[in-house]
Automatic annotation (TrEMBL):
UniProt-listed Pfam families: OmpH
Organism: Halpernia frigidisoli
Protein known as: Periplasmic chaperone for outer membrane proteins Skp
PANTHER family referenced in this protein's UniProt entry, alphabetically: CHAPERONE PROTEIN SKP
Superkingdom of the organism of origin: Bacteria
Gene Ontology terms describing biological process: protein stabilization
Gene3D superfamilies xrefs: Skp domain
Amino acid sequence: MKKLSVLFAAVVMLLSVGVKAQKVASLDVATILNMMPEKKKADDQLEAYSKAKQAEIQKAGESTQAIFQKYQEEAPKQTAEVNKTREAELQKMQADLQAKSAAAQKDVADKTNTTFAPIEAKFNAAVEKVAKANGWDFIFDANNPSLIYKTGPDATSLVRKELGL
């Protein structure tokens, strides 16, 4: 057991001698992104697009609801066969509505990804340029709750300057 602990200590010492000190900085990602005019414009476009999709789904839902109420009121006056046909029709309409809702959610997600891709690329390029210029090996998001200790330089102002904000 004693030999094992001596061997472990020797390995740790050898590794610590060979490890280069890493330069680390923090960055307030949310603040910078919210300052970018491109992001503000993208947020507005996506909100309008999302509201339009929601309005489409709501309109379709109201139409389905109106038909359902009509069929419910007329059900006692109809034959069992007609009611069964109407029930199948309503189930199909409900399935179509769910499919439209899922498609709308996918469309909004796709539009979000497409819209934010160039913004993300511009941001990442600025961060990389600032990190290389200052010799930083790592930059952590200052807003990350798993970051429990923060010291060293803050890259926020340099990235903002690089982006012209």
